[in-house]
Amino acid sequence: MRRNAGARLATGVAALGLAVWSVLVGVAAPASATVTCPTVDAMTGVVTPAPAPSVNWAGCDLDGAVMTGADLAGADLQGANLTQATAYNADLANANLSGATLTQANLSGNLSGVNMSSAAVLDLGISSANMQSADLENLTSGLVDFTGVSLQQADLQGADLDNSQLQSDNFFGASLASVTDSSTFWSKDICPNGASSAYYADGCLSAVAVSTPSATPTVTSGTVGDNGWYTSAVTVTWYWVDSNSLVAAECPASTSTATQGVAVVISASCTDSAGNVGQGSLTEKIDTTPPVVTITGVTKGGIYPYGLAPQPQCLTTDAYSGVADNAVTEVLGGRPDGTGVLTVECADATDEAGNQAPPLYESYQVVYAFGGFISPRVGSTLSVSSRKIGVRFVLTNVSGTPIAPDVAAALASTYDVRATLRGPGITPVPASCAWNTTGNYFQCGIVIPRHVRTGHKNPYWITVTENLGGGYVTAPVDYYSQNPAPYYFK
Fold first, then answer.
1. What is the distance between the alpha carbons of residues 100 and 79, in angstroms, rounded to a whole number?
2. Which CATH homologous superfamily contains domain 39-209?
């Protein structure tokens, strides 16, 4: 804003007093900051040195400067000459352009908090810019072209906007006191009260031109996702206007919805003092639900024989916006040969709205198949007097091929293969199995309990179990074997 004459006089007196004091005490007065102005190439408009944040170019001549993409955040350009300068996609946040000459300049980008008070803006063009909370008091010369500019909470008091073009600009919460707009064209703008300029006779500074409640529905709460979707409940504020007074109880200020879908209609009505009823509605895309991920091929906690384990897959579906990225399938853990406890991870599934599904995990086991008892013969009758059952067998893949001897020996060395006798009148009798390197088979001796019952009416069972990291489980049979297998005593 302009200083008045009194302020200038006070400043001069203060400066004189400081100078006199300095002479009397023999101390030099502090020097004012020196401004080093850049040069502007007359042909290309290139500025040297290049623009930089917080640079001090107050009062400098930047006529015709080309500063596309420049970072001039916090720069001091007070009183500078920016005639015909261009600064597209520039960052001028909180820059000081007060009193600057911006005749026929063109700006876009981030101008939030910029100070343009008292700037000369004849034929200034600003498009697709963020000018929230900008200080535009007392702009002079008029004839500005603002297109798609966000001017929420900006201060335009006393600005000259005569003969201007104001199109698709947002003045919500802005101060337009004492603004002049003679012969100014308003189109699709949002006025300081949130209502559309279309409901006024000649722009936001004129009288309301509608006699039925008219809404400017605006989403004021909701999480913006991807591709035009919201990923949370949405609140729509209506900003009703009417040349008649509104009945507050009949005119909701806002409406919220958590309904999901590709075309969710949010609507409201309003009644004025004359009984006229206006309707407002807005259609939005709302998807608050992440994609659903399921695992196919294997079941949680499932046990599969070596060589016959199914291939796990992650299946991704989405009910509303649709799948953008399918979950990535990864199998974690297990032993080098693919046996043991394995975990399927399904991660990174997203939908078109931007919702991401949490990772999904399911564990299962792949174990060696049982290749059959070498001894005792399945279904045979054993003598109680022998006191011990000598059990011999092999573990294989599902096709019956025995596992490698070094793998079998390693399992035996950690006591991860057992044979257990179960049946009437006894508690289970387990025995750890060793690896016979000569015969290439597992062998173990089960002690026969004293109280076993004899005869074919009292079957007993020998079960081979293995532990590949998930606890002891029954070794699944191959195509020819039986586990557990029945035995009798005499």
1. 4
2. E3 ubiquitin-protein ligase SopA (2.160.20.80)
